[in-house]
Design a protein that fits this description.
The protein is mainly β. About 10% of the residues lie in helices and about 40% in strands. The longest helix is centred in the N-terminal third of the chain and has 9 residues. The protein binds fructose -6-phosphate and zinc ion.
């Protein structure tokens, strides 16, 4: 492959290099939303796409960088905003950069021993995910997509199982005029540490 460049508009682009497109529907986030009753209610009325990822596939080897767009649609399950599954990198010593292109949201992050951080997304903002921290994108807008550009080392791999089993330590919930953080009752420090 030769060096290349491409446009990165926040909207649709005909000339982007992405060769992979995945859609994550509500059914693929089973057990992740706090309000299980509301989750099941919503699923009975269909299975909406919660987020999409467009990326360029690179060989999963050190030296390569994988990159693309993460697009989280607006919506809520009860008070909880639409969000990505979230993951640790399988190779814990790998970082990631997110650059917000469009929308309003946040990146919820958590270290292996249960430290946590929330960084807001708005257009132009960059978030650096340090090695060893799990990350989940959350769309805090009720109307607009949250579009971020991400870059990470291609050999990082993805560990979804840790988050699937206990979620993140914090929930990000809607409240009038903004959002609030709440403790996730499913989370336990023991569950966090056994996966470090
Ligand atoms: C890659 C990365 C992003 C996410 C994307 C979807 O390491 O962090 O490309 O993969 O935002 O989120 P997940 O992978 O958690 O479903
Ligand atoms: Zn990642």
């Amino acid at each position: 492959m030769r060096p290349f460049g491409f446009e990165m508009p926040a909207g649709e682009c005909q000339t982007d290099p992405y060769d992979s497109h995945i859609e994550r529907r509500l059914s693929s986030l089973s057990g992740q939303f706090f309000n299980q009753g509301e989750y099941e209610n919503l699923l009975r009325n269909g299975d909406p796409v919660v987020y999409e990822v467009r990326s360029m596939e690179r060989p999963e080897q050190e030296g390569e960088l994988s990159f693309g767009l993460s697009i989280v649609h607006p919506g809520r399950v009860g008070d909880e905003y639409y969000m990505t599954k979230g993951h640790f990198h399988q190779v814990r010593e790998t970082a990631e950069i997110y650059h917000c292109l469009r929308g309003i949201g946040a990146l919820l992050m958590e270290s292996g021993d249960g430290d946590w951080a929330l960084e807001e997304f708005r257009p132009g903002r960059v978030v650096y995910v340090v090695p060893g921290w799990a990350h989940r994108s959350i769309n805090l807008s009720e109307q607009e997509d949250l579009v971020t550009f991400f870059v990470y080392p291609s050999h990082a791999g993805h560990d979804y199982a840790t988050i699937e089993s206990r979620g993140f330590r914090k929930l990000v919930l809607h409240e009038a005029g903004g959002y609030k953080l709440a403790d996730n009752p499913r989370w336990s420090r023991a569950g966090a540490e056994c996966h470090v």
